[in-house]
Amino acid sequence: MSRTHTVVPSPIGPLTVVAEGGALVRLAMSPPGRFVDAEIGERSEDGFGDVIEQLGEYFAGDRTAFDLPLRPVGSDFELAVWEQLTLIPYGETRSYGYVAKAVGEPGGAQAVGAANGRNPLAVVVPCHRVIGADGSLVGFGGGLPRKRFLLDLEQRGDRLF
């Protein structure tokens, strides 16, 4: 299976979306020039209609959950953490400690933070919804201003474009 990618404009900057075999394997907040070609494959618009549509709906405040085929690659622990992230309701947050307990690793908040940092499907797998135990915004690979933007978007529910 070969990978292909496209770049989707968004209010938080261009999103590089990578698919393989009809499933999303990566959604990154980096321009495609930051990746090795083998990581993202050739650029193509084919097969990205659903993700482009759903991201547009999300940023417009019209979508609260994504319905896309996903195939993230990671350790069993990372996959469990990423699955747990998809269970955090739109507009809500959970602490790293909460997620650690939910995946059977009480005391594993730092490990959850590391798994969050390796989340290959940002926005779609909502790692931005995980915050510090004291409610502070910490640890977001896309930068804390983007994390704040996404959380504010989900709190407001107003239309952006």
UniProtKB/TrEMBL annotation:
GO terms for biological process: DNA alkylation repair; methylation. It catalyses: a 6-O-methyl-2'-deoxyguanosine in DNA + L-cysteinyl-[protein] = S-methyl-L-cysteinyl-[protein] + a 2'-deoxyguanosine in DNA; a 4-O-methyl-thymidine in DNA + L-cysteinyl-[protein] = a thymidine in DNA + S-methyl-L-cysteinyl-[protein]. GO terms for cellular component: cytoplasm. Its EC number is 2.1.1.63. It is an enzyme of class 2 (transferase). InterPro entries: MethylDNA_cys_MeTrfase_AS, MethylDNA_cys_MeTrfase_DNA-bd, MethylDNA_cys_MeTrfase_DNAb, MethylG_MeTrfase_N, MGMT, MGMT_N_sf, WH-like_DNA-bd_sf. PROSITE patterns: MGMT. The active site is at C127. Residues 6-72 form the Methylguanine DNA methyltransferase ribonuclease-like domain. Pfam families: DNA_binding_1, Methyltransf_1N. Keywords: Cytoplasm, DNA damage, DNA repair, Methyltransferase, Transferase. Gene3D superfamilies: Methylated DNA-protein cysteine methyltransferase domain (3.30.160.70), Winged helix-like DNA-binding domain superfamily/Winged helix DNA-binding domain (1.10.10.10). One of its GO terms (molecular function) is methylated-DNA-[protein]-cysteine S-methyltransferase activity. Residues 76-155 form the Methylated-DNA-[protein]-cysteine S-methyltransferase DNA binding domain. It is found in: Cytoplasm. Its main location: cytoplasm. Involved in the cellular defense against the biological effects of O6-methylguanine (O6-MeG) and O4-methylthymine (O4-MeT) in DNA. Repairs the methylated nucleobase in DNA by stoichiometrically transferring the methyl group to a cysteine residue in the enzyme. This is a suicide reaction: the enzyme is irreversibly inactivated. This enzyme catalyzes only one turnover and therefore is not strictly catalytic. According to one definition, an enzyme is a biocatalyst that acts repeatedly and over many reaction cycles. Belongs to the MGMT family. This is Methylated-DNA--protein-cysteine methyltransferase.
